[in-house]
Amino acid sequence: MALTKKWVVILIGPPGSGKGTQAELLAEKFGLFHLESSQVIEKKFKNADPSDKVIAHEKEAWRAGELTNPELVREWMLEEIRSLHDKGIGIVLSGSPRTMFEAEGELPVFEDLYGKDNVKAVHLNLSKEESIKRNSSRRICETNRHTIPDFPIFKDITACPKDGSPLLKRELDTPETIGVRYEVYLRRTQPILSFLQDRGYKLIEVEGEQSIEDVRDDILRGLGEL
C-alpha cells in the first residue's frame, strides 16, 4: 500500500535520464500523481481547434524538438497543479518546469500550496550520447503513455506490462530530434538547477547512467526514505 505524501517532487534531467520511469515509481510508492508536461502538451495539441494558428505553430516547433511556448505551458501546468492540490493529492513532476520562466512561476505556487519543506528537487545526470541512445530505442504504451526504457529486461515485450496496451514509438524520438532536445535542455532547463539552489533547495544529485533500481534507491536515499 502506498505511503501517502503531500509532496511536490521535481525531477530534472535531460531526455532519457529516466524522469518518467522514476516518477512512476515514486507515484506508486508515495501515493503521488505523476504529472507529465509532455502528456499535458500532447493532450492540448490533440484537442485544439485545427484552425488555431498559434497552436499549429507551437505543434510544428514541438515536432522539431523545440520547447513549447513557456507561457502556454506554465498556464496549462498551473491549472493541473491547482486542481490536484484541491483534491488533496501530492505531485511528482517529470519534465516541468522546463524553463526559467516556468520555474519562476511554478515554484512560488508549489511553496504556497504545499509548503516549501514539502517541495523536493532531484537532478538526474545523463550524457548526450546516452540520451540519444536511450531515446532512439525507447517506447511508450498507447493507453496511458507509460515509458518503456531501452533496457534488456524490456527487449522482447510487445505490450505494456502495466496496462497491456500496444507499444508505440513517440514521433519525437529520432536521433536528430533528441540531439536538438538535449541542447535545448542544456540551454533552457539546466539553469533551473542554480535557481533552485539560490532559492535554498538542496538538490538530490543522482547519476542517471545506472539501473532503474539503483537510480530509484539513490533518489529514496536523497529523500530520506531508504
Break the fold down into its secondary structure elements and pairings.
Blueprint (H helix, E strand, L loop, with lengths): L7 E5 L6 H12 L2 E4 H11 L5 H11 L6 H17 L4 E4 L5 H15 L4 E7 L2 H10 L1 E3 L5 E2 L18 E2 L6 H15 L1 H8 L5 E4 L4 H11 L4
Parallel strand pairs: 1-3, 1-4, 2-3, 4-8
Antiparallel strand pairs: 5-6, 5-7
Helix pairs in contact: 4-5, 6-7
Largest sheet, if any?
A: 5 strands, parallel
Low-confidence stretches: none
Mean pLDDT across residues: 89
Proportion of helical residues: 40-55%
Instruction: Report the CATH C-level class.
Output: Alpha Beta
CATH topology-level name: Rossmann fold
Commentary on this structure:
Helices cover 49% and strands 14% of the residues. By secondary structure, it is an alpha/beta fold. It has one domain (8-127, 184-222): P-loop containing nucleotide triphosphate hydrolases (Rossmann fold), CATH 3.40.50.300. A hairpin with a 5-residue loop joins β5 (139-141) and β6. α4 packs parallel to α5 (100-114) and α6 (128-137) packs across α7. The two termini are 17 Å apart. The relative contact order is 0.18.
Briefly say what this structure is:
The protein is 49% helix and 14% strand. It is α/β, with parallel strands linked by helices and 226 residues long. The protein contains nine helices and eight strands.
What labels describe this entry?
single chain; Rossmann fold; 5-stranded parallel sheet; 3-stranded antiparallel sheet
